[in-house]
Amino acid sequence: MLDCIKNTNCYKSLRLTDNHAYLFYSLDSFLNKEIALTRAGEILCENGSFCGKCPACLQFKSLSHPDLTIIEQDSIKVEDISKIVNLISTKPVQSKTRVLIIFNADVINETAQNKLLKSLEEPNDSTVFIFTTNKISKLLPTILSRLNKVFVSSISLSDKKLISNELKKENINIEPVLNQDFNLTESINLVTNNDYSNTLNQVFNLLENLNTTADISSVVSSLEIKDKSLFFSCLMDIFLDILTPKKFDKNKILTLKLKYNDKAVIKILPHIDEAYKYVNANVNFTYVLDNLLFKILQEKFLCK
Ligand SMILES: [Zn+2]
Q: Could you read off the pLDDT of 232-268 as tens digits, one per residue?
């Protein structure tokens, strides 16, 4: 996969230069990760190009390079950062530089971020940090100011095709959704992650069955939502697709387009955003959703 990423226009256009700390960010967490790994491969390669052939590249590909550390956890606390600080106080084993990757750095809690800050403020020549995130706002401004922030802009169809061919080798076939407006993470989730397609279907059903305020309690009680943030992003995506259909099943979207005109949708989008913020602030999900659906219906009727 990494040889493939290296050859994408998306990667080439980043024109990365030497730095002691990178942050790759975009909404596409799969792409962020692959780009982070590709950069790490370039740094550790004995030929400096991620040649794929030198001993370091071979070790890297099997993720057994002694100077590569990858951290991917649901949460990162001060104790985890202490381990990192200890690690980087030692010399790399094999290469000139050690590479430390933290995927989804937004899971580092605030105290831990403050602890990490010291290491970023006083970089040592032998460590390169690489972070990724799809929620850049969760990182402290002080941390952000120390990183070389690289925004990974959306990927072209030709790049997607290259990556799709690689994914096929891993038995992941995203070809059916390639021409639609899904990013790579969404495409992969659609074909491999039941939660995603399940949530998406539930949101479609909800919108199809929601006609008057009398329907609110029944549609809400029929929901089985595991991931609330995924629920809101599906809801947001569907309404965006009503405005410019390019992502989802055309027939389903056209049915919704008859119910919700563009004017109503434009008024509805900020309500979804607001509801998501309330749920993130731990306001009761059912309560927030009841209110949101009421507002959606209200906008729908007012914009007739
Ligand atoms: Zn190499």
A: 989 999 999 999 988 898 899 999 999 999 999 999 9
User: What is the torsion angle, in degrees rounded to the nearest 10, for the CA atoms of residue 156, residue 7, residue 58 and residue 103?
Assistant: -30
User: 49 is in which domain, residue-wise?
Assistant: 2-155
Q: Is residue 110 part of a domain?
A: yes
Cα(44) to ligand 1 centroid in Å equals 7
Q: How far is the CA of 8 from the centre of ligand 1 (A)?
A: 18
- On whether both 137 and 211 belong to a single domain, the answer is no
CA of 53 to the centre of ligand 1 (A): 5
Residue 43 C-alpha to ligand 1 middle, in angstroms?
A: 9
Q: pTM for the complete prediction?
A: 0.83
CA 231 to chain centre: 15
156, 28 Cβ separation under 8 angstroms: no
Do residues 281 and 209 share a domain?
yes
Q: Are residues 144 and 202 in the same domain?
A: no
